[in-house]
Specification:
The protein is α+β, with helices and mostly antiparallel strands. Among the domains are: 22-123, no CATH class; 204-338, no CATH class. 49% of the residues lie in helices and 9% in strands. It has a 5-stranded antiparallel beta sheet with strand order 1-2-3-4-5, covered by helices on one side. α1 runs antiparallel to α2 (83-97) and α5 packs across α7. The longest helix is centred in the first third of the chain and has 72 residues, at 8-79. It is elongated. The chain starts with 7 loop residues before the first helix and ends with a strand.
């Protein structure tokens, strides 16, 4: 075998090549690590921006609903028009200045914004900063039981400082609800089991509209209300209004409530209905059941009988009442639900 001898210079060159290759390997590994870390940081930055964007959108739609409701009231007073006309003026103005928005899309966005507003009212606006994953769209799709679970969590954790290991299971998860909150859902299920809801419909003759048409999508048609069932509650305490379980869908809930009013007060007819309130007219010469007056005399936009949700007589309840401007009474309670 032939031996190959290296001179001193050749040995030095070989050693330099080996050291150079080792340095390239180290440099390459460092680049890989820095690159993956940079990608992670970019993803985290994007996530934080998304969270801030979601929270900003929630605030924007909440403020929009507050502004919309105030604008409706102001136009009704200044222009001496009803709710339908005031809303129509606002909607037409918005559509005229936003030509890319179709009327149906506007109605859908208002409906979604109303749900976002109601959600923030229930949890408290100081909790919006803890909403990490929910967008305005996902909030609008939450069921009543899911919303109540979140409300219960904040009630049981008043400091609202959520540990990192709970954020995903309580607030930030759109798919599951933490096991810590199952008691609230079980309570709802138990309550539902105690309520007997027959399927007998409300007669169609109970619904009478004033004949005015409206392009507002929140307007309720006569046929839909006639099919709403009337709940019969096993009332254990006759001194208070029983707690009812209403349909979860807001539109169906509103139709159901109107059906109850028209069945209980057959001398009333539906005048208008939207997400905020329902208005009713008296038929014939019937006196107002709240003020015992004739609301048809010198009738203004405020003399209609209104149906609105408000605080219940007991803590943790909300009650739908009929109210009249001329009466100083709190109103006639129609139905109560868990807040």
């Amino acid at each position: 075998m032939t031996e190959i001898s290296l001179t001193g210079r050749e040995e030095n060159n070989c050693q330099e090549k080996i050291e150079s290759q080792d340095g390239l390997a180290e440099l390459s590994s460092s680049d890989v690590l820095q690159n993956i870390n940079r990608l992670y940081e970019n993803a985290c930055t994007a996530e934080n921006e998304r969270i801030k964007a979601n929270q900003a959108e929630i605030w924007c739609w909440r403020n929009f609903i507050i502004g919309l409701d105030n604008s409706i009231d102001e136009i009704m007073i200044k222009e001496k028009v009803g709710t339908k006309k005031a809303k129509g003026l606002i909607y037409d103005f918005i559509l005229a200045h936003n030509p890319d928005t179709k009327r149906k899309t506007l109605y859908q966005r208002i409906s979604r914004a109303r749900k976002v507003y109601e959600f923030t009212e229930k949890i408290g606006i100081d909790k919006i900063k803890y909403i990490k994953t929910y967008s305005a769209n996902s909030i609008a799709e939450l069921s009543d039981s899911q919303i109540q679970t979140i409300v219960d969590y904040f009630s049981n954790n008043p400091n609202t400082e959520l540990p990192d290991d709970q954020e995903g299971s309580i607030i930030d998860s759109e798919g599951e609800i933490s096991g810590d909150q199952t008691d609230a859902l079980e309570a709802v299920s138990t309550t539902r089991a105690e309520v007997s809801i027959p399927t007998s419909p409300i007669p169609l003759t109970h619904l009478r509209l004033n004949g005015n048409s409206s392009d507002d999508s929140s307007r309720i048609g006569p046929v839909a209300v006639s099919t709403s069932p009337v709940p019969q509650i096993n009332e254990s305490n006759q001194s208070r209004l029983p707690i009812s379980i209403l349909p979860e869908d807001p539109e169906e809930k509103r139709k159901h409530i109107i059906g109850l009013v028209l069945e209980k007060f057959p001398y009333l007819s539906l005048d208008d209905s939207d997400e905020r309130r329902d208005t009713f007219n008296l038929d014939g010469s019937t006196l107002c059941p709240l003020c015992n007056g004739d609301n048809k005399v010198n009738r203004s936009i405020f003399d209609e009988i209104k149906g609105e949700w408000g605080d219940g007589e007991y803590y943790g309840e909300r009650t739908y009442r009929l109210k009249c401007r001329e009466s100083f009474k709190p109103g006639i309670p129609v139905v109560s639900v868990k807040a």
